[in-house]
Structures are given as structure tokens and as C-alpha cells.
Amino acid sequence: MGNSVGSKLGNLNMKITKYQLSALIGMIVGDGYLQKTGKKNARLRLEHSLKQKGYLMWKMSLFPNLFQGRIKLLQRINPVTKEKYFYVRTQSNSSPLLGKLRKIFYHEDRKIIPGNIDKLITHPIGFIIWYYDDGSFYLRDCECYLSLGKIDEASAINSLNAWKKFLPQVELKDKKAKGYELIFKKESLGKLRKILYWYQIPGLIHKIPSLPRND
Q1: What is the CATH number of the domain that holds 95?
Q2: How far apart are CA 130 and CA 18, in angstroms?
Q3: What's residue 201's pLDDT?
Q4: Domain carrying residue 94
């Protein structure tokens, strides 16, 4: 899979920096959705809760030529509790760059994580966004978790291998109906904390782990 994915990328990063490409991939494997728009193009949809509007604006600021539309305020109703909650959404311009990425990260309209994801993310910003999108810190357990959702087993293993190269002390857990999850053990929190502190995003500080106590 590694060679085929590499050939599909081609000269994808000629017009964007390695930092931007890694950030873009972090959004795609995280909460982003690539929507097909024609045979060769796609656009990226980003959604966050209203409390994380600052995070969405920060993402958009990384790609001023790609995200030129306005942020929309939308409302959903929980089908069980009937509680209303608000979220914000933006969509990028349609582009062949995103069309190429969609061929890599989607198979029959389902998101996948390719085998050489660790080579596609060449800057830590990709892992930072991936964690901020889908990660959580639980003070009681003094552990961090990254929800991978209901992806296939191969994608889950590819995710694990990529994170292990970036942050070795991580494990994969199959939560059955809830999908797969990565668990960052106490030994990894110091490094993860240091990395996340490079990019402190408004509204997401609670996701940065506290260092474990020695007593």
C-alpha cells in the first residue's frame, strides 16, 4: 500500500508547505469530512461545537486560500434527550488537491487510514490536530485517549503504528460497538504535554494532560 499511496500523492505538496500538508491530513483523519465534487475534486467540511469556534477559526487561518467562506452557526436536537445544541461549520473551496487526498483516505465512501500515514504526516502539527480533534484527557486515570471510531481493523493498526513512531507508549483497544481507541499511558504524558503546549488552542486546554504524580 505504501508505494501506491505515494504515487497517488505525486506533486501534491508543491503548492503547500510540509507543515500545511501535515495539518491538512490531521484534519482529514480527525473530524474532517472530504466531500467529492466531481471526478477529480473534493472539498473539506469542518464542524465543531460552538465552544470550539476559536479552534475552527484557527484551522481556517492555516489555509487562507482554501477556506474563504463564512462560518455557519447550526443547531441540532438530541433525538433521545431532545436537548438543543449549537455547532459551527465551514467548508473549503473545491480543489484537485483535496480530490487526490480523498482517493487516499476514502475507500467506497468510508474513511480509512493508509499504511504509510506516518510518512504522510511529516510535521508534528498533523498529530496535534488529530489529537485535539478526537483526543481526551481523564484526570482520574491520568491517561489520554484518542477515539478512532468505527474504522476497519487495518486502519486502526495503521493509526497505532503511526502514533507509536511519534509517541511510543500507546496501546490500541477495540471497544466493539464504540469502535477503536488509542490509549496513551502515563509514561507518555510528559512528551505529549510538551508537544501540545507548542499549540495551545482556546477552548481545548482541558485536553492537555496533567503530569502524573509520583506519590
Answers
A1: 3.10.28.10
A2: 16
A3: 84
A4: 16-107
Taking alpha carbons only, the member of 107, 98, 187 closest to residue 142 is 187
Determine the residue type at 171: E
Classify burial at 21, counting beta carbons within 10 Å of its beta carbon; exposed 0-12, middle 13-18, buried 19 or more.
Answer: buried
Compute the distance between CA of residue 131 and CA of residue 124 in angstroms, rounded to an integer: 11
Q: Which amino acid, one-letter code, is at 56?
A: L
Per-residue model confidence (pLDDT) at position 197: 85
Quick check: is 91 in a domain? yes
**Distance between CA atoms of residues 8 and 100, nearest Å:** 7
Positions in the chain whose pLDDT score sits under 50: 1-8, 14, 215
38 within a domain of the structure (yes/no): yes
> Quick check: is 99 in a domain?
yes
3-state secondary structure of 46: strand
Neighbour count for residue 129 (Cβ, 10 Å): 28
Please count the structural domains in the chain.
1
